[in-house]
């Protein structure tokens, strides 16, 4: 007897950066250049003193995201490696759940799939809450260089995919 499982996925939220759904910002004084391109956005940094570049954006609070969902990012890491950190607001909205994924240099576009079930509580009274004190975003996403030095990455799209 053969058993066939069918998993149906649906898109909870998506941006290609041309739709102006979000704004990418640099984290505090971590210098990073942010450019719109035909393919999405480009992030470029050449930090001298602190050694790191960090940009972030968020998914609005009215988007329901759960730990059963998957974060999908299409990117090309041209220089350095990317440390991608995400902070998912827990279902009870009391704590953010932290997940980290490392993405390495590649000449090709990569479709990175990150199961949100791998996230763990990140207890802090300040971060990331203080980034937008008047809001409770469903998720923050940080794109940073993993190693000190020059950093260059392109991002074509970001999706949150759910299972039904």
Task: State the gist of this model.
This protein is mostly beta strands and about 160 residues long. It has no helices and twelve strands.
Give the helix/strand layout.
Elements: E1 9-15, E2 25-26, E3 33-37, E4 40-45, E5 54-59, E6 70-79, E7 82-89, E8 96-103, E9 110-115, E10 120-122, E11 139-145, E12 151-163
Antiparallel strand pairs: 1-12, 2-5, 3-4, 4-12, 5-11, 6-9, 6-12, 7-8, 7-11, 8-10
Q: Overview of this structure, please?
A:
The chain is mainly beta. The protein has one domain: Jelly Rolls. 0% of the residues lie in helices and 49% in strands. It is built from no helices and twelve strands. It has strands at residues 9-15, 25-26, 33-37, 40-45, 54-59, 70-79, 82-89, 96-103, 110-115, 120-122, 139-145, 151-163. Strands 1, 3, 4, 6, 9 and 12 form a six-stranded antiparallel beta sheet that branches. A six-stranded antiparallel beta sheet has the order 2-5-11-7-8-10, with no helix packed on it. The radius of gyration is 16 Å and the shape is globular. The chain starts with 8 loop residues before the first strand and ends with a strand. The model has no long low-confidence stretch (mean pLDDT 87).
Spell out the key features of this protein:
single chain; globular; Jelly Rolls; 6-stranded antiparallel β-sheet; mainly beta; 164 residues
């Amino acid at each position: 007897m053969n058993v066939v499982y069918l998993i149906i996925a649906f898109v909870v939220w998506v941006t290609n950066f041309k739709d102006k759904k979000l704004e990418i910002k640099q984290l505090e004084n971590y210098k990073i250049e942010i450019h719109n391109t035909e393919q999405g956005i480009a992030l470029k940094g050449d930090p001298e003193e602190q050694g790191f570049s960090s940009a972030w954006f968020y998914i609005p609070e009215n988007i329901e995201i759960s730990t059963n969902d998957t974060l999908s990012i299409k990117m090309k890491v041209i220089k350095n490696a990317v440390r991608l950190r995400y902070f998912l607001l827990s279902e009870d909205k009391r704590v953010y759940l932290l997940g980290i994924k490392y993405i390495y240099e590649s000449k090709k576009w990569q479709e990175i799939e990150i199961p949100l079930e791998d996230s763990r509580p990140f207890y802090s009274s300040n971060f990331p809450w203080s980034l937008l004190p008047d809001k409770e975003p469903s998720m923050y996403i940080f794109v940073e260089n993993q190693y000190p030095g020059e950093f260059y990455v392109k991002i074509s799209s970001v999706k949150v995919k759910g299972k039904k």
